[in-house]
Amino acid sequence: MNAGFGLIVSQGRVADRTDGALRGARATADALGDYLGIEPRVVGTPSPSLTDDWSAALPAAHDTLRGLRDALGTAMDAGQTPLLVTNTCAASLGTLPTVAARHPDAVVLWVDAHGDFNTPETTESGYLGGMVLAAACGLWDSGHGAGLDPEQVIVVGGRDIDEAEAELLSAAGVRVLPPAPDVAQSVAELVGGRDAWIHVDWDVLEPGYIPAAYRVPDGLLPHQIAALFSALREQVRGVELAEFEYGDPKVPERVSVELILETFQALLH
Length: 269
Description:
Layout: E1 5-10, H1 20-36, E2 41-43, H2 54-60, H3 62-77, E3 81-86, H4 96-102, E4 107-111, H5 132-136, E5 153-156, H6 163-172, E6 175-177, H7 183-191, E7 196-201, H8 222-231, E8 236-242, H9 253-264
Parallel strand pairs: 1-2, 1-3, 3-8, 4-5, 4-7, 5-6, 7-8
């Protein structure tokens, strides 16, 4: 792994249905920037959350998604390891096609309680964030590209998956690893010596550690994410950290940011 990170933070609404994730992304990026001694590249301008259908949220996020794509390409061109801090998983609509083009042999680890593999035909909620991985794998056209090989995708910690979504995941050849004590070892064995791109949605964790908009019980623990980072340290070609819901009164923001920072440090030591 290149020790020179390109730190990118998404600050434009991308289907946000709450206001906390934009603030969480900014707080996380500022802490990572201070730790690494680099200035985050900010993409987008915050706007209020809105519960809208994917068909409205997608065009509204157009400029932010293009900005994230361009920022990612710039970091890669500079030989940096991209470190993206995003508000929602839907922001990856702008990044995963570039990952597929630049690192076609990389395994994409989608560390998330959800599969995010719905399509416009299967989605029950109309939420864009639940459709992002399917778009990157070419199951529907987001307008921002595709190219990801689903057989090179592993959903790690997935446990809240719709029935129709599960059928799509299975048919496409995406592996789903539910939470387990030895999940980091299992992932490392599946990845082998290949490059890896790691996306983490903090709702993959057991609720109570890092707040996320969706609380799904029986999740992974922070040390398991750190173990995953540590096991793949030399193979990681980029990292995305998403969905930290800043402002949860049950968990002080300072505690969550410190935990994210400690987890990230497993990539370095």
